[in-house]
Amino acid sequence: MNAKMKCIVLFLVLLTATGMLPQRAPAQGTSVSYQEFYNELSPYGTWINNPTWGYVWVPNAGPGFIPYSTNGYWIFTDEGWTWVSGYSWGWAPFHYGRWFDDPNWGPMWVPDNEWGPGWVTWRSSEGYYGWAPIGPGISISIAYGNSYYVPDNQWTFVRDRDFGRHDINNYYVSSVRNVTIVHNSTVINNPRENNGRNIRYNTGPGRSEVEKRAGKPIVPVTIRENPKQGQSLNKNQLQLYRPQVQKNMASGPKPAPAKVENMKDFKSPAQRSAASPKPAGNPQEIHHPLPPVKTGQPVQHQSLPPVRTGQAPQQQQPTKPPQTQQQHPGQAPQQQQPSKPPQTQQQHPGQAPQQQQPSKPPQTQQQHPGQAPRSQPTQPHVAKPEDHKGGEIPPH
User: In which domain, by residue range, is 139 found?
Assistant: First the structure.
């Protein structure tokens, strides 16, 4: 027994020494290049060659998109106030890089290799908290100081009692009040150093201050590494994908997007929205062709819903040369062929029997009981089956 136990212990030692036992994943995630941004964000937007910042990315988020405002919320974590995005691609442009607002093309994102809970500048005033994206090329010391200027319309404000809500987008203050609030606010500067990543960022409003002003406790959430792209919140843990991004690769091809557009060829958000096709189920597309059909029908036929759509084509066909031959084969007298427009006036003098008067278009249903000859039952065979099928739609 002692010999067997020694063999088992020796085998386990060998497994541990050779690394065959499961190893713990690194705390800071994997290392990637800018190519990760270029590949993973391409399906969700457009890469543009900007003359100032190089490759910049514009998301397909539609008109009205505002970074750190649309489809997301702030949550307090062990890294400070962290932006949780509702977009599947939110792990990258809200935690790396910088946003700037182009007056013609809208928000654009410039990649960078530093991770942060949210690259914004913070302000506080009596009853309000606010934030705005930090532009590219702005150092942290400037961005978190009083001298850094952000246009008033790029700020997002909420009542202090509503800060920290997951549905915070329903409580944004109207931007028309930004000028007054900004000019009566002060900068929030709560910097933090992350020695593991060698970065410095602003954690936002203090936890105790928010609890006092909001009148509710703030429970911190722990950030855990997510091995794949995306983010999720579960049981007070925020799973985030935040790899170490290398700005310069020592070897290999230079990172670049597979498809790049020039600024002069790029369309603004309004132009892209107008050029996009409408959904197949759009009610306007279904009902738009119907009004011309109704307006082209005689007034008398609008009172007969069951045969209205079928009678209109039959009555309009005698006025057109290609369709006059389809109505007259069903009628015994062929003398009505030359009388294209005034059918009602030529039927009385040209046909001695007055039994054919019911053959007028508005009175097709009265031909069966009013005519003695049996040769006329061919008329329902010509008109009514096509009428009920919804047959041909007259051209407009």
Answer: 25-247
